[in-house]
Each structure stands twice: as structure tokens, then as C-alpha cells.
Amino acid sequence: MKYKSRLVSIISLALIATAISYYIYLLKVGVVQHAFHAIQELGFWGVLIGIFAQMIVNIIPVPGEFTTLMLMEIYGPILGGIYSWIGGVLGAIGAYFLAKWLSKPFAGTMKDFAFTNKLERYMSEKKALGLLTVRFVPFLPYHMINYAAGVLKVDIKSFIWTTMIGLLPYHIVVSGMYAGVRHGSLVAGVIGAVVFIFLILFGRTLKRRKVTSKTN
């Protein structure tokens, strides 16, 4: 089991490294800039295409950071961040219903996953606030939260509003850091860094509370 997990991690890292290398190459030859300009000229339809692309990568288990950065590159850190947030929320809802549909024939197997069990226990203690809290914890697998919520058949209204609020810190961090690095905005960069540090401290605080509650 550990061997398979490591193999998947290695393959994922290799694919991400390949994608980044290819993207840098396309930047150098000007293909990316031309494609971004073409999308901008589409106006409203270009925005819909960008949101749709972000939605798809958030439904399937593919990192959405690339499309987020692309949207910010095309429309700027603020509008790009907003469009990415909309696509992220729609993608989460799509992943929720996909997992809910797939969980019918494989309900027993999918509920045996450790992450699903953890989310179920956390939500049984704090209900919707438990799901919202999980959204705020950094480095947790975003897609797995959506899938687990679908498998557990979490109340859809609670899932939507917790997702909308829970995705805001991530997009504030990315938009702020992007504006700081790409456009030299010191204020935006500081805001993004502060929110990111807050999320890390918040996640550590949750872990300490869990450890304390177990020992007690």
C-alpha cells in the first residue's frame, strides 16, 4: 500500500514538473501570451471559458493552481482571483455530486477511506462548522474534502456555503502573493503572506487541540 502511494506521488510530481517545464517553454516562445490575448478578446465568453476550465480541474483530481494563475495572468490578480473562486465553488459542487453518484455502487469501499472517516467524525462533533473548519486548514487535499462530503451525503446547502467561505482565504493568499511577485504590489503581497501564515497557525492549533482531546 505504501509502495503504491509513493509511486502515485512520484508520478504526480513528475507530471507537475513536466507541465511547469512545458509552460515555461511556451512562455519563452510566446505561445502563452498569444493564447491569453486571444482569450481576452473573447470578452464575456473568455471569462466563461476560464471559469469552466477552473470548474473542470476542481471536479477531477487535478491541481487547480495552474488555471488559477492563468486566470490571474489574463484578468489580473483581483478579477482572476474572483473568476477562479467561482470556478472552484462550482467545481466543488460538481465533485460533490460526482462522488455522491459514484458512492452508490461503491458505498462500502469508499466509506472505508481514512479521510472519509476523519471528516465524518469531525462533522458529527461540529456539524457544518466542522466542514468549514476543515476548509480553512492548509495543505489538506481539496478534492478529497469534496469527494468525502459527497460520499457522506452532507447537506448540500451547508456544503455550498462552507465551500464559498472556505475557499476565500486560499484565493486571497494566491491573489496577494501573485500581485506581490508579478506586479510588485507590496501591500497585496503582505496581505497574502499574512493570511497564509494565519492559516498555518490555525491548522497547527487544530492539530494540538485534537491531540489534547485524545489524551484527555
Automatic annotation (TrEMBL):
This protein's UniProt keywords: Cell membrane, Membrane, Transmembrane, Transmembrane helix
Top-level taxon in the UniProt lineage: Bacteria
Phosphoprotein listed as a keyword: no
Principal location listed in the UniProt entry: membrane
Record domain VTT: where: 62-176
Bilayer topology term: Multi-pass membrane protein
Compartment(s): Cell membrane
Transmembrane intervals: 7-27, 42-62, 74-99, 128-147, 159-180, 186-206
Cross-referenced InterPro entries: TMEM64 (IPR015414), VTT_dom (IPR032816)
One Pfam assignment: VTT_dom
Record-stated family: Belongs to the TVP38/TMEM64 family.
Protein name: TVP38/TMEM64 family membrane protein
Lineage, top ranks: Bacteria, Bacillati, Bacillota, Bacilli, Bacillales
